[in-house]
Structure formats: structure tokens, C-alpha cells
């Protein structure tokens, strides 16, 4: 399934959940605080900006934000919150599309790099981030840790969340490092709606190698946006990669 088919008008319409889920203050607040500190006085670029979940509050903090986005319906939803002058968006994919200018910060949140389904595309995404960064600038990725320890031998699926009206499960293709997330929403009438999204999962060490291939250095890794320690039991991470600053040239005279 192509990404344009996944992030269609229906997905854009139901994406925003103000005050709850990934829009909850306890989730969004630390994310924006973290990114605002890294951006400092410089501009930021969000890959896969979507409906502006992070970009809108970050711009309200005074950080100039530009976006790259593949889905026109998602951008239409963003435009109900911020106009083009406030948050400009370049249409295209995050692996190859170029936005004008250089940035202090490029960021890619909520597992979105895994929407690129090949290792080559994911490496291109890192290189595209490096292409946009000023010397000393940072590329931030939020990504889950593959939970293969929860996958018993011979099984291809795990249930990762259940609650009234919802079941979430993942099916794995471990040969290709692929998984498909299945989201089942149902009501008391017995009617159910299924939403699916394909991903290529990435180990932290593989992610670091992608950074090296793009000329980026791992600066820090934490378990969450609050800076909790990343351990072997962490289920996700926020990783910060830095483009080395330009070395000052030295001249000698006679």
C-alpha cells in the first residue's frame, strides 16, 4: 500500500485528537520543550509535518518552522490551524525533497522514519536531513525499539494494546524487517473498522550507522522526551544526531 493511499482524506480527518492520545499535554509538552531547546534561535524543519501536531505549538513558541509532507489532505488539515506564511510546507517525500534554506534543527517524530520501507530510503532520509542542516545543527528522531522478544517462535503477530473499543496488533516479516500495524476499532453494535500501516523497523545500532553514512554523529539518546535513561528495557528512544561544526581555518603570515 502506497503512503499516499494511507494518509488520505479520511486519515487526515480522524488524525487529530485534541487533548488526548499523542495530542495529550503530557505527551506533546515535553516534545515541544525538547525541540525548542535544540532549535535555539535558529529555524526548524519537520519531515512529514502532517497536520502540524508538533509544528504548530513549536511555532507558537517562536521557532520558525518549515515542513515537508507527502499527503495533501494532511496539509489541508494543517491549514485549518496555520497559514502558509506561518508554517510553509514543501510537498514531497522526506527522503529526497529539498526545502529552501538551512536549519539549526531537523526533526522526525512518532516512528515516521519507519514509513520508509527500504533501508536505502531510510539512509536517503538521513542524508536529506544532513543536506538541510547548518554546521553544528541537529537531526532528531523519535522511534520505537523493535519488540521481537515479545514474538514467540513460530508466531507472526503480537497484540500490543487493548482497550474498550480498540485492539492493536502487529504482524512481522522478520526476513525483511517489516511489520504491519493493524488497528481495529469496534463499537457495541459489533461493527468494526480496520486501519493498517506498513513499516520497516530499525534497530538503534542500525540507525546510528545510517547517521554515520550521512556524516552525522550520535550526540545523545534517551528513552523519552523528558530525558529518561535509555536502557535495554526501553521500548522507544529519542536520538539526537549532530552535523559536525565547520573547523575554523588557520592562516599564518610573515
TrEMBL record:
MF GO annotations: methyltransferase activity
Domain Methyltransferase, first and last residues per copy: 45-137
One family name in Pfam for this protein: Methyltransf_25
Keywords from the UniProt entry: Methyltransferase, Transferase
Protein name: Class I SAM-dependent methyltransferase
BP terms from Gene Ontology: methylation
InterPro entries per UniProt: Methyltransf_25, SAM-dependent_MTases_sf
Coiled-coil ranges per UniProt: none
Top-rank lineage group of the source organism: Bacteria
Organism: Streptomyces thermospinosisporus
